[in-house]
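Many introductory courses stop at the sequence. We go one step further.
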Amino acid sequence: MNNSPKKIKMVDIIRPQKKSEPPKKIEPQKKAEIKETPKVQISTFSKKETSIRAPREKKVRKKVSFRFILIIVVIGFLIYLAFWILPKASINIITEKTSLDLTAQIVADKNISEVNISSSQIPAEVFNQNKNSVFSFPATGIKNVEKKASGKITIFNTFSSDNQPLIANTRLLAPDGKVFRLEKSIVVPGAKIIEGKIVSSSIMTTVVADKPGQEYNIGPVARFTIPGFQGSEKYQSFYAKSDVSMSGGFIGEVKVPTEDDIKKAKASAEQSLKDYFSSFFSAQIPNDFKIIDKADQFTVLKEDVSKEADDQGNFSVTIEAKKSIIGFKEGDVVAVFSNLAKEKLADGFTLNSYEISYNNIVADFNKKILNFSADFKGIFQPPFDINDFKQKISGKSELDLKTFIFSQSDIDKATVSLWPFWVKRTPNHINKINVLVK
């Protein structure tokens, strides 16, 4: 669509309005109507324009005034912050230290509960632990052996109410003709008579095969007879039975531990228990207790070594041991030396650091006492009043501050830091000054 005709038409409409035309005669009534309408329009336009402009000018003025005040407040706050709130001073001071080397003979005693500084006695604690273990080791020796089988049997008495003694080595005969003998003398209790009937009594004991060899490793036997009673009424009334197999019968070569095997096994078993005790006490003894060398005691209470190896060629070592330790609190030792240091230093000195070495240690576990000598090397710090120092340096310039610090005889080194970077004086308020003394 072409817009040119519209433009021409609009120009044509607008231009006649701008040309001045000679006044036309109109009727009085129409003229009055025409004049009245423009008056209303002009009056309305003028009021609207006035009502809109006045508030805008006021708002602009208010905005300018508020921004100006805000900027002034912010600038004032920043100045206050920069010169009153932000300035801080940090001063690290290293004072002149005094080193002392001291030696004392100290007694740690379980029987006292408090430190006796004058006699250099401190409380001690005794820690004890027992352990029983079985260890297995390979046997390297070989030996020809003959072993007899053995096992448990039960002997019955259905003969009379009288007790029947049987001596050691009494024979008992198995149905297959193998003979076993009582390991020791026994007494078979008499039978009981209940309602006129004999009720058998019994006793369990150990028997050993008459000869060595695997052939005597027989299974359970329902009835053993006693050949010694053969030909008497007791032969049928005394008998025995076994509920488990006989075992241990052997003829041939077996593994056995040599003397060297036993020596090494004992040493290994003892070391294993020592390692166990070390771990145990390390976990159980409180951290504030000091344990020094030679203040412990390891005792073997019982030790058994099997003379023959098992089916796998190993022999066993059964060992029971006990370890005791006398411990003390190192803080009590420090208290003794701090008291000795007072005799050589002025009042107010405090211990900064120390080293202690322990020598000539003698432990008496019967009396529960530990004697030792201690070499003490302590670094002592002179008294320093931080608050008084802050008061004296507040408000000083950097130069005056450094001059004052190094005029103090008890200060060895110092580091001064003022913040922010434009600050050239320490703050007047001491709570803005941080002092660290080492």
